């Protein structure tokens, strides 16, 4: 039993480590918001206000695995549409908390506005964005308004080479992010600038955008880079539909690089575990019967770890008979 527990822990440990590595988001310290005063206002105690508050309040109970919120409430002229998105390396629970905080702030800051947008961050990096409108905003590309942030440090030498390498990295990631299908459109990567300097970057589009609109949005805000960050060691630009950031240190969680492989790894671990159990059952059964047509398989020393049996030392050099049918079944179970 103890050996079985160790074996189960062996397979599950990578999964536990993955979730622990996500950690928790830092305290949300800063916000950027836009209350659109040219789109009209709603009346206090109106149906629109009731629908808006009900919809925003409901976000605190919704957890979206892929970090993109798209909901609506109401009918006809009183219908409210909400879109929210989190940084791609945030786990679902912290994403929900960020969206919930954004919704609480938005109703108090932009009271009576038909259209509003808010961004929350931890003082350094964008964490989530939330916006609502009185018309459907799903699939719309909006690269304005935008805001930017830059680091305090300046590039003091080889500025031209630095800018070229940075732009090359961002352009490459824009292509990768735009080409990704829903529910995620993001990319991360790094580029060596010199022997002692590497750049790390993240780009992201709202997943409701088409590939063409995602590319257009990111290229659009990339054009604002020179206004804020041309001589800076790090910086980024955010708008309602897309965002990017670069730094000289890795600022995104390492889990984001292997996120798409997490499920595959977990499935392979489970399959491997099932195969080991299946082989063990066959060995126990075949030790009690004789097969006329057999294939000789020599047990390797690795069975000492996986077997969980007090006879593991004896199995090292023991010959175990398997029928051709059993070997065929094992072969079919192996991952291809």
TrEMBL record:
Keywords for this protein: Membrane, Repeat, Signal, Transmembrane, Transmembrane helix
Gnk2-homologous domain residues: 30-137, 143-251
Keyword Membrane carried by entry: yes
Record-linked InterPro entries: GNK2 (IPR002902), GNK2_sf (IPR038408)
Entry's transmembrane regions: 263-284
Presence of the UniProt keyword Signal in the record: yes
Pfam families for the chain: Stress-antifung (PF01657)
Coiled coil regions, renumbered to chain: none
Signal sequence coordinates: 1-26
Protein name: Gnk2-homologous domain-containing protein
Lineage: Eukaryota, Viridiplantae, Streptophyta, Embryophyta, Tracheophyta
């Amino acid at each position: 039993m103890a050996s079985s527990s160790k074996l189960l822990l062996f397979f599950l440990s990578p999964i536990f480590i993955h979730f622990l590595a996500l950690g928790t988001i830092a305290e949300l310290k800063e916000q950027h918001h836009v209350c659109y005063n040219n789109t009209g206002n709603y009346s206090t105690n109106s149906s629109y206000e009731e629908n808006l508050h009900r919809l925003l309040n409901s976000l605190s109970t919704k957890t979206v695995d892929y970090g993109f919120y798209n909901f609506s409430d109401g009918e006809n002229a009183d219908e409210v549409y909400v879109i929210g998105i989190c940084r791609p390396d945030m786990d679902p629970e912290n994403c929900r908390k960020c969206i919930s905080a954004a919704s609480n702030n938005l109703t108090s800051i932009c009271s009576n506005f038909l259209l509003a947008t808010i961004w929350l961050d931890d003082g350094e990096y964008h964490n989530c964005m939330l916006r609502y409108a009185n018309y459907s905003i799903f699939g719309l590309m909006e690269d304005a308004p935008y805001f930017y942030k830059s680091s305090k440090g300046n590039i003091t030498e080889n500025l031209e080479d630095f800018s070229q390498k940075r732009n090359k990295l961002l352009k490459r990631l824009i292509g990768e992010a735009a080409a990704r299908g829903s529910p995620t459109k993001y990319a991360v990567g790094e580029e060596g600038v010199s022997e002692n300097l590497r750049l790390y970057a993240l780009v992201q589009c709202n997943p409701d955008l088409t590939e063409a609109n995602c590319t257009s949005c990111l290229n659009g805000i990339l054009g604002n880079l020179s206004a804020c960050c041309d001589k800076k060691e790090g910086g980024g630009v955010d708008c309602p539909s897309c965002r990017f950031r670069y730094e000289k240190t890795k600022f995104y969680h390492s889990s984001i690089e292997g996120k798409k492989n997490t499920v595959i790894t977990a499935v392979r671990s489970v399959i491997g575990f099932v195969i080991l159990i299946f082989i063990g059952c066959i060995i126990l059964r075949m030790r009690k019967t004789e097969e006329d047509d057999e294939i000789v398989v020599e047990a390797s020393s690795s069975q000492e770890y996986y077997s969980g049996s007090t006879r593991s030392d004896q199995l090292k050099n023991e010959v175990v008979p398997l029928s051709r049918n059993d070997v065929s079944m094992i072969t079919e179970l192996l991952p291809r």
